[in-house]
Fold this sequence. Notes:
By secondary structure, the protein is an alpha/beta fold. It has a domain at about 1-105 and about 380-443. The protein is built from 17 helices and 16 strands. It has helices at about 25-30, 40-55, 70-75, 80-90, 95-100, 135-140, 140-150, 215-225, 240-245, 270-285, 300-310, 330-335, 335-345, 360-365, 380-385, 395-405, 420-435, and strands spanning about 5-10, 60, 110-115, 125-130, 160, 180, 190-195, 235, 255, 260-265, 290-295, 315, 325-330, 350-355, 375-380, 390. It is globular.
Amino acid sequence: MKYYEINFDGLVGPSHNYAGLSLGNLASKNNANLTSTPKAAALQGLEKMRTLIKLGLKQGVLPPLARPNLTTLQQLGFNGDIEQMLKAAYEHEPALLASAYSASNMWVANAATVSASPDTQDNKVNFTPANLVSQFHRSIEAVQTQRNLKHIFNNTHFFHHHDPLPAHQHFADEGAANHTRLTPEYGKAGLSLFVYGQSIKEPENAPKKFPARQTLEACQAIARAHQLTAEQTVYIKQNPDVIDAGVFHNDVIAVGNLNVLFYHQDAFEDTKAVQTELNEKWAKISDKPLYFVEVPREQVSVSDAVKSYLFNTQLIALNDNEMALIAPTECQQTLAVHDYLTELVNLDNPIAKVVYQDVKQSMRNGGGPACLRLRVCLNEAELAAVNPNFVLDEAKIDALKVIVEQHYPETLDLASLANVDTYQQIQKANQALAEFFEINEEF
């Protein structure tokens, strides 16, 4: 049976704004309080989805969570009617208002960890929503994300849904942004690479400036829940120095697909040990070559990698022999990165093409092409069991574009979030999307 790696992209929500809420994410902090353009952001995201369809890939979509999350505001003591709640939150705790409105769930690489059925002992696709406890504005997403995942992947014969890990820093989990699957073929058992920033058992070996958002203990818990074997699981310690340099997730410094691991020289604490373990475990599952595409610091600094999001690119398979990188246009505009990519496609590895995509609105909040998608490996029967409302073609993209163009705000800033007229416009957009996807979200 044929298998596919399908990118389920998060549709940017109508409350997309720049509040600078994400500690350790340099773009988020540097662009805090700029005026955002939700309509342009959503249209850019839809065009990226269209690009992948045109490249011959199957493409899915995850809906935005309905915002603002009024339940959260009520839990925090803001009462009265909606207008009173919004104004009180803005006057007394504007960051909490921004959190309730946050559209950060558009970066669905953080939504969940997904294990393919060839890797799991129950032979089902396993999902664990990320608890996202390291950032308040994201920690309020997990329950709603799980509800959406169960709605989309709703056949229990094929899909196994787990609860988020306990909401404690001991099990801090940021989803697929710290998980990579390497495999000789999508339909064969592969290696699950879990990258973590800190182990609770070794608190001294942690970043000094910014928090480590993924713990080893969280990775191990997910591997147990998904019934992954030790022979096919690899735990990799992220370099704490690059976390302090703005690499808040592994997918800001490394990306993998099939038999290629593309990463910066400074990505991991002990790169040689990583290569040794991967080679040993790979040899037991395949005789295909395993490619380590390591970017030297002399060619691309960590700073340039973070600025351009060189590694937050989508590494996609064009055919059995060639891959492409879907890269943000910032990679074109960063000289060292552009020069490296020009050289990369001529080296002895499967990466043969770079496709540049404009996702500037997302990039300003620290999310490149890879942040906007959750990869789900499915065979033909599993794909047929997915709720078809969330599997895209160009006609559905056109229909979503109409909704965005008709209902999304042109611009948003923090002050406008307290305006009841803004609230009502966003609710109209939420309702139109709920009708399109046939979902019922109430807060």
